[in-house]
Amino acid sequence: MIYDIQNETLPRDEMEKLQLRRLQALCERVYANVPFYRKKFDEKGVKPTDIKSLKDLSLLPFTNKQDLRDQYPFGLFAVPKDQIVRIHSSSGTTGKATVVGYTKRDITNWGELMARSFVASGASAADAVHNAYGYGLFTGGLGAHYGVEALGATVIPVSGGATRRQVMLLKDFEPDVICCTPSYALFLAETGEEMGIDIKKLPLRIGIFGAEPWTDEMRLQIEKRLGITAIDIYGLSEIMGPGVAIECWEAQDGLHIQEDHFLAETIDPESGETVAPGEEGELVFTTLTKEGIPLIRYRTRDLTTLNTIPCKCGRSTTRMKRVTGRSDDMLIIRGVNVFPSQIESILIETEGLTPHYQLLVGRQGNLDTLEVQVEVNEAMFSDEIKSLQRVESKVMKNIKEFLGVTAKVKLVEPKSIERSLGKAKRIIDNRDEA
Ligand code: DLL
Questions:
Q1: Among 282, 303, 326, residue at a domain's last position
Q2: Which of 84, 253, 305, 413 would bridge 101 by S-S if both were Cys, CB 3.0 to 4.6 A apart?
Q3: Which segments of the protein form a coiled coil according to its record (predicted)?
């Protein structure tokens, strides 16, 4: 089923016409209402009327996270404050928070896009959704919540935390769909096992997981342990929140971008030049319909590849590959670039290891060092030291062979790495202290 058959299946030329119309109106709007953009346009010598085709997008200036921080809290809002009906904010790990505001129409659009996303995942109005994304300034909880209501399904607003109670609710309320981060899904499976509740045997059918990078290997684990179809959902608060793009259950082959609302490009992160579909680049979004805080060419730092081939599910929207890392999560270990997700793939494929891991980055002299700490499963834990050492060297060898970096590998006890209720913390960077 497709929720918004008209907009999700628009032929390419009609989609582009709609995008252009919206882009032109957007440029007029931000030029008139946001001094920051007026200045940026003027500096580039571009006027809203210069945008005559979608190709002219490249004339427009980029926006980045620092711009949002510099304009903290409300400097990029394009409407008077009395039209803002909701604020969200993302704390980030460094620097000031970024703040976003939504008008009534923004909230309605977001609900509709999340309703589209639920249907793309295989859910329907008849389903009940256990929503374990955090409620609050984070966009996950309320974003999914309003989507369930727009669809007319039942929302169970659990939020994050109290994990044993969550397992009880999964058993007692028998929801069809769960929303949470992929790392939390595994924590739920593990907690269920401890409580003697096998989530696989419950009616739960679909998981909608996002807010952090995960891999296909992790998907298989989650699908097996929870007995569900695991769907990847992508979004970021600056652009809207969850629901910017989602996989369809029919293909699970790339995430459909809601292109009538968000114009996507991929660029070379160094030069800023646009790269062609099929080539990896940094994802850049222009919000076509947002009123509260519209953004022009926002650099997400997320790396992906666009695919314009229509999908077998019937949607014609451009798809993006699973985001395997942010350019700022990339580690450079002795000159070699490594993403946590690449290490994750190697760990998950190794017998006896779990997907619970952390990467400790340090410095010795002038060189960066990497230590991979990964939990073993119970069976492996009760094995002899010799076989543990064998696994350690095997993982070290695979990391060296496939990724080209030397890492120390340390197997740790089951359940010794702290579980996260939201986004997992994969990297511990001790370089500043060294
Ligand atoms: O994480 C919004 C969200 C909530 C998305 C719930 C999906 C589900 P932020 O806190 O602003 O917003 O973080 C956005 O998280 O730029 C990516 O780096 C990362 N991210 C989000 N979804 C995915 C995903 C929410 N499916 C940042 N795969 C983004 C990989 C993701 N990374």
A1: 326
A2: 84
A3: none
Contact predicate 62/41, CB 8 Å:
no
β-pair partners for 38: none
- Phi, psi angle pair for 122, to nearest 5°: 105, 5
Q: Given the CA of residue 233, which atom of ligand 1 is nearest to it?
A: 26
285 and 411 inside one domain? no
Q: Percentage of residues in the chain with pLDDT exceeding 90? A: 90
| Any ligand 1 atom below 6 A from CB of 213 | yes
DSSP 3-state of 225: helix
Is 342 found in the same domain as 263? no
How far from the centroid of its chain's Cα atoms is residue 278's Cα? 20
**CB of 218 sitting under 6 A from ligand 1:** no
Q: Based on the fold, state whether residues 220 and 255 are members of the same structural domain.
A: yes
Reported as a single tens digit per residue, the pLDDT across 325-380 is 888 888 888 788 899 999 999 999 999 999 999 999 998 887 889 999 999 999 99
Return the half-sphere exposure (C-beta side, CA atoms, 13 A cut-off) of residue 118: 31
**pLDDT at residue 407 tops 90:** yes
What residue numbers bound the domain in which 416 lies? 331-433
Q: Please report, for the domain that includes residue 210, its CATH number.
A: 3.40.50.12780
- Asked if 321 and 339 sit in the same domain, the reply is no
**What span, in angstroms and rounded, lies between the C-alpha atoms of 341 and 257?**
22
Q: Is 245 in the pocket of ligand 1 (CB under 6 A)?
A: no
What whole-number distance in Å separates Cα of residue 417 and Cα of residue 357?
7
Domain closes at, from 326, 350, 380: 326
Instruction: Look at the pTM and tell me if it is higher than 0.90.
Output: yes
- Do 102 and 235 lie in one domain? The reply is yes
350: domain CATH number is 3.30.300.30
375 plus 299 within the same structural domain: no
DSSP 186: H
